[in-house]
Amino acid sequence: MDQLRKAKGFICDMDGVIYHGNQILPGVKEFVDWLYRENKEFLFLTNNSGKTPRELQQKLARMGLKVDEHHFYTSALATANFIARQKPGAHAFVIGEPGLFNALYEKGITLDDTDPDYVVIGESSSYNYDNICRAVHYVQNGARLIGTNYDLTGPTEQGIMPACRAFVKPIELVTGKEAYYIGKPNPLMMRTGLNMLGVHSNEAAIIGDRMDTDIVAGIECGLDTVLVLSGVSTRETVDSFPYRPRLILNGVGDIPGQA
Ligand SMILES: [Mg+2]
Predict the structure, then answer these.
(1) Distance, CA 209 to ligand 1 centroid (Å)?
(2) What's the topology of domain 2-47+187-257?
(3) In this structure, how many other beta carbons lie within 10 angstroms of the beta carbon of residue 124?
(4) What is the pLDDT of residues 49-87, one digit of tens each?
(5) Contact 150, 179 (CB under 8 A)
(6) DSSP code at position 25
(7) Fewer beta carbons below 10 Å: N end or C end of the chain?
């Protein structure tokens, strides 16, 4: 625990670490206060591509947490970065929510319904048969298929619901082409996160609730790894993975210790 407290940079997952749906988790306020008090570099990093950093900031503000906008990094921002570097000024057909559209727009990627360079799929409630048919058509015509993240399901207040990979899969099956997925555990997103913090991987820790995204990403990028049991993982499910986190905590509230 001392080693963790000495880390310069913290990359924190959000869902299952900071909140559950619209409910803040115990000890989070103390943890965020501690990050500020100790002058830590930190980033809240989420695979969900639906919300903009400002919307995430406002969501936390409604829970009583004041965090500046520049502390948020989403798979939508990472996807926009990736495409802008691969093909500046690219055209894309996009199925997603405002967080994704905004991120792409800000990187100079324009929407195109005739001959897009990319088909980009994120979480979306506007996903439908017509959209899938168009996406399939564009990919068959040579558009590159990108998923904002590899999550198959996501927790909601109504239970487990389909997430990005479940939306991309039909397009992969029909076209025979495999998508490239940007979010965690893709090291791309972690590396950019570390660059944003200005911290080397061996001075940083990742805190997450998922073994197959947060923890594996941390291991592969050389960060200290902390699993919290406030989300989807239990001590039993941890053992079903071939890798393990360095620390397992009940929640981020354990980190500040006795103030
Ligand atoms: Mg999570």
Answers:
(1) 5
(2) Rossmann fold (3.40.50)
(3) 18
(4) 999 999 999 999 999 999 999 999 999 999 999 999 999
(5) no
(6) P
(7) C
Residue extents of the structural domains in the chain: 2-47+187-257, 76-181
- Cα(8)–Cα(205) distance, integer angstroms: 8
Tell me the pLDDT tens digit for each residue of 94-114. 999 999 999 999 999 999 999
Name the residue with tokens 């310069």. Answer: 8
88 C-alpha vs ligand 1 centroid, how far in Å?
31
Three-state DSSP at 112 gives coil
Flag residues of the chain having pLDDT under 70: 258-259
Rounded to a whole number of angstroms, the CA Rg of the chain reads 18
Fold for the domain defined by 76-181? Rossmann fold (3.40.50)
Query: At 212, phi and psi to the nearest 5?
Result: -85, -5
In angstroms, rounded to a whole number, what is the distance separating the alpha carbons of residues 148 and 86? Answer: 15
Cα 9 to ligand 1 centre (Å):
18
- By annotation, the residues acting in catalysis are 13, 15
Q: Do domains 2-47+187-257 and 76-181 have the same CATH topology?
A: yes
